[in-house]
TrEMBL record:
Main subcellular location of this protein, as a coarse class: membrane
All copies of domain Clathrin/coatomer adaptor adaptin-like N-terminal, residue ranges: 21-540
GO MF annotation: an example: clathrin binding
InterPro entries: AP_beta, AP_complex_bsu_1_2_4, ARM-like, ARM-type_fold, Clathrin/coatomer_adapt-like_N
Upper lineage: Eukaryota, Fungi, Dikarya, Ascomycota, Saccharomycotina
CC terms in the record's Gene Ontology section: endomembrane system; membrane coat
UniProt family annotation: Belongs to the adaptor complexes large subunit family.
Species: Pichia inconspicua
SUPFAM superfamilies, sorted: ARM repeat (SSF48371)
Protein's UniProt name: AP complex subunit beta
Keywords per UniProt: Membrane, Protein transport, Transport
Domain of life: Eukaryota
Swiss-Prot/TrEMBL GO biological process terms: intracellular protein transport; vesicle-mediated transport
Amino acid sequence: MSTKRLELKLRKFFNIPKKGENYEFRSGLVSQYADERKDTIQRVIAAMTVGKDVSALFPDVLKNIATHDLEQKKLVYLYLMNYAKTHPELVVLATNTFMRDSEDPNPLIRALAIRTMGCIRVEKMVDYITIPLKRTLRDDNPYVRKTAVICVAKLFELNPTVCMEQGFLNILVELIDDPNQMVVANTVASLLEISKITQKDVLKMDSKVLSKLLSILNECSEWGRISILSSLVSYDATSLSEVHEILEKISPQLQHENPAVVLTTIKVLIKQLGKLPENERENALTRLSSPLCSLLTSAPEIQYVALKNIRILLEKYPNILEKEIRAFFIRYNDPLYLKLEKLEVMVRIANESNCMLLISEFREYSMGVEVDLVNRAIEGISQIAIKIEECSKKVVEILYELFINRSEFVVEELVIVAQHILRRYPKEYLSTLITIIADLNFDDLNKSAALSSYIWILGEYSKEIPHLEDKLSVIVSSFEDFEPLVQVTTLNSLVKISLTKPTPTIMSLLQTTLDKSTKNVENADVRDKAFLYWRLLSTEDKILQKDIILTKLPILKTTIEMFPPGLLEELLESLGNLSSVFYKPASSFISVDQKENTFFTSSDLQTKKLEDLEQIAKNEIVNNAVKADNLLDFGNDDLGDNSNEQENSNDVLEELNELFAVLNNPSTSKDSASTLSNNELLNVFGHITSEMDKPRAESKNDDILNLF
């Protein structure tokens, strides 16, 4: 194969621009001018922050680590922290610089070095971090110490065995007595993190530690206060005087501008309330209303988290916000998710003194244009009526008014709440609610929940419904198209009606429904229920049938969702955390098994299939050749008009195979390229200046040409 033919095939296969962004970055990183190298590093970091993959520049960025420019050093360290996992074998080459920087006279550089070593999540770094970490934990400068204590938690997560063998946990416990409040706060945060990992109480709280933490609380930063307050949540006061001391010291934090500080303070206060006498407990609870309401003046996202936490508090202490109901009224510019959450809170605050005000407010919401808000407002009106009997009559009047001015989505929600109210007041408002149901047609309803409620009312109050048989005929004709929920409700209602109003038409509809349920329906629950009814109705004991089927349901006490007692206590201890937003224990969505963290090592490659490894090798060859294309100055004079023609992918692959078939010893060339790259990188740490003066492009050009 001639040289020109080879050049033609390369040019046709690698049809890309000669220069790209990475090529420019690489050229700038090896520039002989320091300003140009620094500017290029800044551009690389900018590309990294917007999500571009610049990991291929790792060796070139690493060459710039040895510098006295603090700004450039920070940028290089930031790059290393982000891409260390992609090049674990190369990042170890920077350890000498880290070790040297950890002894630098400048405390900023010492702290930067130990912080970066802690953030590099590579197992090989563990062997190098222990000595500088011990030294920085005893550093004279508090800024270095406060950085080092956080690094202990990172090391423990990476390798707990080394952390315990080197005595780092004991050093942390000693640092709680540090004279600097920043160091103490970070030490507490580190110990709390280790406690979460080990599921053990590493932070041994006693009266001495308690006094120390309370004394520095007001001197710490806002995040330091959160760490200290979080540590107080797990402390069990040994006496009433200790409870009073805790409440006195933490109460000023309720006025803090950071919502996280406020919520964490409330969490500590709630934990200590159980140890107070009844009269003192009520006084302590009154302190919570103002801070909680102040959270509702924050950004919508913060308000949402606050409302989620308020729901938890209201379930434990339902009267703490009864006088602040107006703070939860919906504003016109609130986002929908915030409006819905405010409705959830208001129905829980409702009591005899404010129910009429709430009903009037909900009535206004139910006449809006947002479908979700209108439906939730109608549901909230019914929840208040079920919860408070005094306002039930007013609620039914409002529901009837909404029915008169009805729209489709309002009607469906009205049917659902009508069922709930009839479950709570079976006879008091029957005439009004039956009027709503009697005027409805089956075609007015689309939601499964509304259909199910409608059919339930037909079965429960069959004697009051006019044209019952016509309504049931339409329902039975569409039986197979229903969701399982509606099918089961239809079965229940037809069986009830067959016992209370056994006309020939009703019995025929029941027989048809049972046939469809047992023969055509795939859902096992519906089939089993149909067989159960069939066998029950086959018996001759009518009294037994009525005793089983016509048994009255218990009176509905509430439709407001409540937390199980165990979950409620766990959520109260998690105020301000994700658990309080998801209403789930942290263990249900966060794994505590730290061994799940994996790192890319050579052993990972052994588990891959052979074809995967071949594909990786091919991709590597292609990538290297693409980079080399920028160095080869092939001419285009001989390409002719055919250079613009596009060939199909099979022809291109065949040409590529033919191209590499002429290579005499590709493995040797690959080793040569690898050796050259590694030698460049290793030499840089011995003599950086001389390396910068080398004509890098020429060496790569020679390397590529040797390949052929």
